[in-house]
Amino acid sequence: SNSAVPPATVEAFVERDSLHFPQPVMIYANVRQGFYPILNATVTATVEPETGDPVTLRLLDDGAGADVIKNDGIYSRYFFSFAVNGRYSLKVHVNHSPSISTLAHSIPGSHAMYVPGYTANGNIQMNAPRKSVGRNEQEQKWGFSRVSSGGSFSVLGVPGGPHPDVFPPCKITDLEAVNVEEELTLSWTAPGEDFDQGQATSYEIRMSKSLENIQDDFNNAILVNTSKRNPQQAGIREIFTFSPQISTNGPEHQPNGETHESHRIYVAIRAMDRNSLKSAISNIAQASLFTPPNSDPVPARDYLILKGVLTAMGLIGIICLIIVVTHHTLNRKKRADKKENGTKLL
User: Fold this and answer.
1) Positive or negative, the Cα torsion across 309, 311, 313, 315?
2) Which of 10, 205, 240, 246 is least crowded, fewest Cβ atoms below 10 Å from its Cβ?
3) What are the distances in angstroms from CA 345 to CA 329, 332, 338, 339?
């Protein structure tokens, strides 16, 4: 309605034109206004086979499952509800309420990624702080509705009758690790029973102080006890805290000259469903646990205390022995002197 304001546009598409069951297909919808991504929209995909009822699927922009980057305006989801062989058509419906914030950025400016600093002749030079980006209240209050066709794709190999459970949970792609003192807190978005739908049954978390080890030999990395951790519904943020028990890598020198004991570990996770189908191994999160200088681990302090007590008891025992021997020697000398004096008197 305003020639100075770019219109909201929707581009829908699928990952591939043809696939074979049980391979899923990823559906995408790019929702933008000019260069800016539109956030918080309600995006629904309708997939319709040549024969049969259409299937609706809510697309998400949460950076989990089929979605790669959170809040980039590209909404996506796995689709695997194939009823028959043949061609399926895709249509995407987008709605946005006038009362919900629309754009990630609503003022003109550079769309290049901000770089906080750079290296020149071995020295780090910092760029000026990035200017804060505000929002235009008028642009926040407009709503819209769009429908876009995403073309079609073909599916082969769909079995007749009830389908066996062949869909594992999707790969966790947003695993993060934050250390607080000697504890490690992991967070990630819960996958589903089947890709990003439903609820998984359990998690398998493993850690290692070697990046190559957890990349190439995940099954033999150190297993973290998650028996009391039940997965939540797909799309919910998971938080899990534990105390890692793993040997340290040795001292690490800090820029201020102090030496800390660095405890660098790498963590990865995968999910399992009720039929023990496992997801792919997640992205690898890294954390470093530091022991303050001049601070010994609890077992070392206990050993030093025990050693001090035993040393003190040994010294006390030696002193007592010296006193007893000295006393006994003096008594013998006194008796000898008395006997010698008596002999002289006689």
Assistant:
1) negative
2) 246
3) 25, 20, 11, 10
